[in-house]
Amino acid sequence: MDDKQEPDGIVLTEAQKKSRRQRSIAIALALGVLVVLFFAVTMVKGTGVLVRPT
């Protein structure tokens, strides 16, 4: 028997791992910017955002 085990699934190259990491960071930054933008808009509009006409 061979003690070597084959890795399961797809094995990424270093370039692919780097590309994936950069893409993940870009997505996280974009999401963070959206959160800050929504927060800023809410603060600018003030408490009127929560008041609904009856």
Rounded mean pLDDT score: 86
Structural class: mainly alpha
**H/E series, N to C?**
H
Backbone shape = elongated
How much of the sequence lies in strands comes to under 5%
How helical, in percent, are the residues? 55-70%
- Output the radius of gyration: 23 Å
Q: Note the gap between the termini.
A: 77 Å
Q: Describe the main β-sheet briefly.
A: none
> Total helix count?
1
Counted beta strands = 0
**What are the segments in which pLDDT stays under 50 over at least 5 consecutive residues?**
none
Notable characteristics:
0% strand; single chain; mainly alpha; 54 residues; 1 helix
Write up what this structure looks like.
Keywords: Membrane, Transmembrane, Transmembrane helix. This protein has 54 residues and is mainly α. The protein has a domain at 15-49. It has 1 helix and no strands. It has one helix at 14-45. The longest helix is centred in the middle third of the chain and has 32 residues, at 14-45. It is elongated. The model has no long low-confidence stretch (mean pLDDT 86).
Summarize it.
By secondary structure, this protein is mainly alpha-helical.
Topology:
Layout: H1 14-45
